[in-house]
Structures are given as C-alpha cells and as structure tokens.
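Q: Got a minute? One more chain.
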Amino acid sequence: MVASHWFLILNGKSAGDDDVRAAVEVRREAGETLDVRVTWEAGDAARYVHEAIAAQATHVIAGGGDGTLREVAAALASAGDDADALPVLGILPLGTANDFATAAAIPDQAGDALSLIAMARPRPVDLLCVRADGVDHWCANLASGGFGTRITVETNEGLKKMLGGLAYLITGISRLGRIEPTRARVRGPDFDWSGAFIALGVGNGRQAGGGQVLCPDALIDDGLLDLTLVPELDGEVAGTLGSVISEGKAAALERVAVRAQLPWVEIEAPGSLTLNLDGEPVDARAIRIDCVPGRLRMVLPDDAPVLGAAGTPGASPAGDSGE
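A: Always. Here it is, folded:
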C-alpha cells in the first residue's frame, strides 16, 4: 500500500486559523505526511499542484472557498494525466460561501473535514470545461450568468436577508427596470432556446453566490451538466413574488425556470457574455461548456447529495482505486 502523502494548498486568508493548525497537527500525529503550502498571489495554487504531482503526493487538499477549489481542480485537470494517475482531491472548506462543500455535505469543521479525507474512499467526479475564445477554463462547481453580482451590490441589505439569494434575484431584477436582461441562444443535444434571460446556471454543483441554488438536481458523477435558465419575467413577476412568500425559493425557481440536463451546451450572444466560474469571469460572444466525466477523483461523504449511483455505500464506481 502506498504511503499517504498530502499537500494542503491553503488560501492565504486562512493561514493563521488556529483550528486549521490544530487539525493539521492531529493528522500528522495520526501518521499522515502532510505538507502545507500557502497561496499569496495568482498562480500559486497551480504551482503547488505541480509540486505535489512531482512529489508523487497521494492527495491534494483545497483549503479555502469555491475559488480555491476551482484553482486546484483546474491545475489538476490541466496536468494531462487521467484521473487515476493524479492525486486525489480533498476539500477543506474555509471560504465565505463554500457553496460546493455545502451542497456536498462536507463538514465545515477543519478537523472533521480532514478526518473525512483520511477515512473516505475517493470517487470519480465530473468537471466542466468552459471554452471561450479558444481557451479552456475548468470549473468544479457552477458557471453562472446574469445580473446576480450587480443586484447583490445595489440591493438593500435588509431586503436581501428577507427574500434570500435567487428568489430576490428573480423578483428584484424586474423591479429594477434599468437593468436589461441578456439576450442569447442556448443549445445542446435536443435542446434549443433563444431569448432574454436574467439568470443562468450551468451546474456540476448545485449552488453559487452564497447559497443561490440554481441547479437543485445537479450530480457530479452523472456525466451531465444541469442547465437552468430564468427568462425575462414580464407578467410572471407577481406570481413569482407570491411563490417566494408562500412556498419559498424552490417554488419560485420551478415557476419560471427552463431546465435541462445535457452533456454539453453552447451559448451565443449578440454582444459579450460574462460567465462567473466560481470567481473567475469569462467573457466571450460564444461559449461552449462540456461535462468531462470522471476527470478527477475526489473525497466526499458516502451520502453526499451531489453523488448519484456512485454515492451508494458499497458501490464500486469506475476509476475507484480503493485507497
């Protein structure tokens, strides 16, 4: 059996976290070889991933939020090897939102998260490959578009707390008539939609933006991306607001959203379209997103909601090394 060798790539904002330091010491005392690398500037995460691969590390742990997870996953996926030849990806949730970790039921306590990595078996998971202007960008969680960022900045804090993420986005955008929806054509196998949208999510994971559940049924091991489009609302605004008040955010989403599960999707816009890949903005008039099945191995709880059949205890997903 290969000795365990972990590289923890830690977001610099968490370098002084006493709980993280204590959790690292517990794992070292348990016999793990655990090297810590702290990011300071752009490119550090990728450089540390390459160092871990060269050192034949068994695990690389993304210690931070969704942006750190994206950077580490992208560096692993860009290494060129197949999933079995790469270190297993673990997650230590330390960000503000931790949207992917929350949807995957990864413990938010540092000690528990590292214990999970030590005990659970790795599973093959999909990634999204986003091609814009001939450049590939990798995304572990969710690609989102629309005006969520501008609404977050411009909306009264009390209203945001009262109505919540996506529900307020759906109702608030139309109330802020000075914000124009985005026009685009979105197509995939047996799917073709054209029109104006106010929110778009292409999910490997389920939520973004600190709890906005855009893709509530997304699985990270089914070989499909989950597409959610919220079209321009027009006359649906009153009904949507009623759903938010009486039934909650999920009901509001179901009332207005166009949804599909696809292996790939292409988005074309008359002008530049911006997608947010967990903190990385991508701008282009034409963007293609592919779901790449089993691109990495990741440590997740057996009962993680984002796992499909591969998450069933006792199942043997393809590519599982049994570590």
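A: Residues 18-29 form the longest helix (12 residues).
Q: Perfect, thanks.
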